[in-house]
Amino acid sequence: MNTPERKPLLLDFEKPLFELENRIEHIRQLAKENSVDVSDQIHQLEQRSVQLREEIFTNLAPTQRLQLARHPRRPSTLDYIQSISQEWIELHGDRCGGDDPALVGGIGRIDGRSVVMLGHQKGRDTKDNVARNFGMASPGGYRKAIRLMNHANRFKMPILTFIDTPGAWAGLQAEELGQGEAIAYNLREMFRLDVPIICTVIGEGGSGGALGIGVGDRLLMFEHAVYTVATPEACAAILWKDAKKSPQAAEALKITAEDLKELGILDDLLPEPLGGAHSDPLKASNILKTSILRHLSELDALSPQQRRDRRYQKFRHIGVFLEASA
After folding, report:
1. Residue 166 belongs to a domain
2. Which of 217, 215, 255, 264 lies closest to 234 in space, CA to CA?
3. Which of 16, 69, 85, 242 shows a CA-CA span of 20 to 30 A to 281?
4. What is the pLDDT of residues 97-132, one digit of tens each?
């Protein structure tokens, strides 16, 4: 019995490229069936395909980058953890009665070194997304995260966090269980930890939900990831009472990696394979691992006090601006 071929999940701006690649494949099949040599024509079309891919993915608008950051097949926290580590043991529970599947974490080993890794986890399909609450962590998730980070600090293991959430869970029960307090507690406690902390935005970094595991010595971010105080849709709804103005909001919010690098918030912009991280997850993982090991080596050269001081100063300088004189 033949299994049905899985259709690609295409974004609007990817359709011209997909149509061209389909055309190349169709010509190749016809030539094979009729024993005709069309290698020159196929070569020209393949060159055009490479050129078109470069044109599309090097000139993306902020809203298009947001679409890529939310792509259902974009590598997730668990994908990266399993790819960059030789060993991985997931740990569960916040020791207060809950275990939030939207925020996962545990102990792993990278190049022989023990580290604690944790991050937001989205689902691959609707059922999985519902189970993981679309990567929106509850208070229990953030309490589990700080428990694991304290464990890392106790045993002198570096902390790697992976950010990929539209925001913290904003449900009534989340508020009843102390969502704001849980995130605020994490923000305070992460500043006092002695061990190196490297935070990476792998997809969508939204609001306090991202910051709850985002206080670190270094902030890394993939090329097509986004990091924002509020989703463009929410911002547009608040400012203009019209979610359709989200492209305008995305432009104003400065959500892209290039914007954050220019503003001095980002420490390292990680290039993605042409077509996005989901087009070549293994290559994206290798890029991430190389960057993490480099930054860990630099942070190892600092004393715990120096790391804490620099971490504090890093965040004190975020948001500082100068007004133009009259």
Report:
1. yes
2. 255
3. 16
4. 889 999 999 999 999 999 999 999 999 888 999 999
